[in-house]
Design goal:
alpha+beta; Topoisomerase I, Chain A, domain 4; Gyrase A, domain 2; 2 domains; four-stranded antiparallel β-sheet; two-stranded antiparallel ribbon
């Protein structure tokens, strides 16, 4: 009996933690005034007749706070990588010197920072909704167990209380990740 409840609560907590990881990966792609390899790692490049992530075709480094350097493992990929960057939503102009690509990050305007904060808040809210959906799904599973007489009404109540605590902790983590990214975006 208690094993069923523990298993459901552990599964819910794992799913909520996965949602937080997804948020962290999503927010790594949001541009700040500082350069980060996370800005370009997700870029899909049409190489060798297939879409490949940039980090599988080149080494990406950040030698300065506002500069990203991309050095392809195969120099014949320079043009393809450059086109992928230009086609992306980064709004950056790649500088190709024949061996590597430099991406200089200009300072963000106040208006652009506010827009990026809206993106951060939207993604944060999406993850909160996902966490609440996991809670609702787990509650439905717990109620089904109670309906099948596998657990008692008291067990159901205790499990729901523990689930709410897990959910509240996950929401706090999401808010912390979101506010940290907002502060990073607004930093001049």
């Amino acid at each position: 009996m208690d094993d069923l409840i523990e298993e459901l609560l552990n599964d819910a907590e794992q799913e909520m933690n996965k949602a937080i990881e997804v948020l962290q990966h999503q927010l790594a792609t949001v541009r700040t005034s500082r350069a980060s390899t996370g800005l370009v790692d997700h870029l899909q490049v049409d190489a060798y007749d297939t879409l490949m992530p940039l980090n599988q075709l080149a080494s990406v480094s950040v030698p300065e706070s506002r500069l990203i350097v991309i050095q392809p493992f195969d120099t014949s990929m320079l043009r393809v990588i450059e086109k992928a960057i230009q086609a992306s939503d980064l709004g950056l102009n790649p500088q190709n010197d024949g061996r590597l690509i430099r991406l200089a990050l200009p300072a963000l305007t106040e208006e652009r920072r506010r827009d990026l904060v809206k993106v951060v808040r939207s993604r944060t809210e999406d993850i909160k909704v996902s966490i609440r959906n996991h809670r609702r799904s787990t509650i439905d599973d717990l109620r089904q167990l109670e309906h099948e007489k596998a657990i008692s009404e008291d067990d159901l109540r205790r499990a729901q209380d523990r689930l709410q605590t897990i959910t509240d902790q996950s929401i706090k983590k999401v808010e912390h990740v979101g506010t940290a990214k907002e502060a990073e975006v607004m930093e001049v």
